[in-house]
Amino acid sequence: MVLLAAAGPRCQAWTIDGVVNSVSQTSYSGYLNSSLYTTTGSNRGYGAQHDLARTAIYNAFDSIGLETTLSPFIFNSATYNNVVGVWEGTTRPDDYYVVGAHYDSVNNPGADDNASGVAGVIEAARVLSHYRFEASLVFIAFDREEQGLLGSAAWAQQHAADNILGMISLDMIAYDPLDAGQARIYSRSGATNTVTVGLTNALNSYTNLTPVFSGAIWGSDHSSFAAQGFPAALLIEASSNPNYHTQLDSTSTAGYINYGYATNMTRGAVGYLATAAELSAPEPATMLLVACGLIALAAARRRRIGS
């Protein structure tokens, strides 16, 4: 009886709703505020906080249990690194779904642009790593986006022969001062792009946000994947941010970051990824399936007795 009672919530949680509901505003806020150097005076462009943030992202992915690596590329004769975490699929490990965000900034704290997206990627990894999926999930923090999408271009080119079935770029997802609740989606291949459709459906199904397809845009990391022929889309806030690329793009700026909105944007991305990669059997599968089956049998028996 103790086993069944304990297993009951897990049985209910092993759904896309259960996955999405595991996304936590507290956890998201912790990553944004405490791990990514987003307070006044921080500089993830070429300042000291750039490398510190990279290490923090690596450690977060690694502690979550992802297969974590640094993926180097050269820019101006210097080596920079994307941070990559892989959660391998159970039956289709060579099919990949990617969610990424850039961790560099324009020599400022970059709380919204784009620590907000990086925190979303880490939170998505934390949640999704508690489940198993048929296809593999790849979580990437890209470097040198602000110099022309360099990190994502390098990684997408290196993996041009891979079977990447979808890519989401989370770029500026935390500014919604009026709580308007709109989420803009851009894609270079139109509204019928499989990622655009799936992301729109996920936002409608699992959040209170209103997705708005807004056409094609080039200036984010989804473009690097689209250039290689992969279906890709950008998820971004709808409001024009007056603190963009300034020192006020900081978690120290009072009333600036809308944590609830950013958490909902993350939930939309998680809903898409969990659906597209196909939720698999839980671990340990045998124990949990037996428990769930016993619960169902017990419920059926109670109904028969009561009838």
Q: Which descriptors apply to this entry?
A:
307 residues, alpha/beta, Aminopeptidase, eight-stranded mixed β-sheet, 10 helices, 20% strand, disordered N terminus, disordered C terminus
Helix/strand layout:
Elements: H1 2-13, H2 16-21, H3 25-34, H4 48-64, E1 67-75, E2 78-87, E3 92-102, H5 111-128, E4 135-142, H6 150-158, E5 163-170, E6 182-186, H7 194-206, E7 210-213, H8 222-226, E8 232-237, H9 259-276, H10 285-306
Parallel strand pairs: 3-4, 3-5, 5-8, 6-7
Antiparallel strand pairs: 1-2, 2-4, 6-8
Overview of this structure, please?
The structure is a single chain. By secondary structure, the protein is α/β, with parallel strands linked by helices. It has one domain: Zn peptidases (Aminopeptidase, 3-Layer(aba) Sandwich). The chain is built from ten helices and eight strands. An eight-stranded mixed β-sheet has the order 1-2-4-3-5-8-6-7, sandwiched between helices. The chain is globular. The relative contact order is 0.18.
